[in-house]
Amino acid sequence: MTTALTGVAATAETRTSTQAERTSRQHARRHRLLVHGAQLAVLVVLLGGWQLYVAGDSLKVILYGEPSGIYTQLRTWVSEGTSIGSLGAQILVTLEEALIGFAIGTVLGVVCGIALGRIRLLAEIFSPYIKVLNSIPRIVLGSVFVLAFGLGIESKILLVIVLVFFGVFFNAFQGVREVDRNLIANATILGGSRWQVTRHVVLPSAFTWIIASLHVSFGFALIGAIVGEFLGGTQGLGELIKIAQSSFNANGVWAAMVIMGVVALSAEWLITRLESRLLRWRPAQLSGPDL
Amino acid sequence: METSTQPSREESAPPPAIELSGVTKRFTTPGGATYTALRDLSLRVAPGEFCAVVGPTGCGKSTTLTLVSGLERPSAGTVTVHGEPVAGIPDGIGFMFQTDAVLPWKSVLDNVALGPRFRGTPKAQAHASARDWLRRVGLAGFEDRFPHQLSGGMRKRVALAQSLINEPRILLMDEPFGALDVQTRAIMSNELLQLWDLTRPSVVFVTHDLEEAIALADTVVVLTAGPGGTVKAAFPVDLPRPRVVQEIRFDDRFVHLYQQIWEALRSEVDIAYARTTSAGREAS
Q1: CB contact under 8 A, A186 and B101
Q2: Do A142 and A190 sit in the same domain of this protein?
Q3: CB 3.0-4.6 Å disulfide test: which of A190, B15, B17, B131 passes with B115?
Q4: What is the pLDDT of residue A291?
Q5: Is the pLDDT of residue A10 over 70?
Q6: What is the mean pLDDT of residues A134-158?
Q7: Looking at chain A from residue 197 to 216, which residues have their Cβ under 8 Å from any Cβ of chain B?
Q8: Do A46 and A76 fall into the same domain?
């Protein structure tokens, strides 16, 4: 009798629990739909408003560009190429400059940050120089590099390195100083040499900081490459923007910007993947909405 | 204490495992003031002796350990380990910290294998030995987990295996089980005693829990209230081994010892409490 009763109660319970699950799933789906719908609406209003505002007014089209014109420009670039060669080649040139500079700048930043973070004497010697270098508007160095190294790829790479280095350097330096003293003491007592402690304790611990800086630094790398091309170049997306600007082609400027946006987002995705791969030892975090 | 088990060579006894004589340790606070953590402290620990150090908060218990481990230097006095003055980290020393000090980015196996790897043991051999120690601390099957996937007690076991794999002749423990719940703590204390019995290193075990101290140790050392703590008294604990930590506290001799040592400790606790509260009043 009692077993029969508890059996009934149990099935009733599982039924209510599956029902609760179903309603919460429905709720989540409705929420997702709402978010995506609103996002789409924002885009439509923005682009539609822009299109309607400039519609038919040729002066406004020249000044501000128009969404349909940007689309046409992109299609022309893809199908017929640009005035300075194929679109793919321009993207590749800019990417090459950004990536090489990003890689060199990151490695230099990490090595210097860890060296200065671990060796107090070095930090004391170099800190005034680093403060001075960090306080000057480094983008101006682009002009110096173009004058010194010419219109080729080298001057752009140098500018990217300078822009990337400082962000990574300061984060690596801070990361080293934030390492848990207990972890270092423990590893030292377990028999770790100074280098072993750096390699097994300091570096992985500082990685959280370093990776965080990579997100920002890649943005700087793209800016460096584009501005470098702006200041003096013959190839690349920056050159494309410069040509479009000087021929009053607002659509061309916007189109180049759209391409940059796609490149930046892809890079961001790759860095996030790298981050979750390298930091998989971390507990899953209770996270709010990601941006 | 254990001279009977030591074959005495010639007339000289073997040097004590740890000897602190007239040790004073001063720190400079960020404000520029000097803080005396230990004043004129002398302490001897024989080879194979389990020594527990108790004392009120802020009496310099942990500082004593950092001096023996070579992480800090004394401001005055000498520290010797196996007859050698401490300069740098002495050989054959293990340290278990109050907080978790296992590396969160290494798996349990890699964490335990760290000591041998640092000393240049080939990876396969270090891993085999680490597996062996994980089995001994009851963590077989958890080799591939990361520390955050373990409970607090399991992380302590990892830390214990990490220290013991180096087969230390001296094991320093700074309130190692302080963060654990009472039941887990008793279990860990028991297992510590069993593991200690395998190789019998000298142990200095810092705790604020007198019951734990008596249950584990051969000698309980009471420090005076800080700042500037020093040894107030040392009490030999002649309870028979092997001991079962959870049950020994009902033993008559245990109760007697507890009363005796508590008598010495209580006045220091009162002084320390009065100092912290009066300091609090001055500050506010």
Answers
A1: yes
A2: yes
A3: A190
A4: 54
A5: no
A6: 89
A7: 200-201, 204-205
A8: no
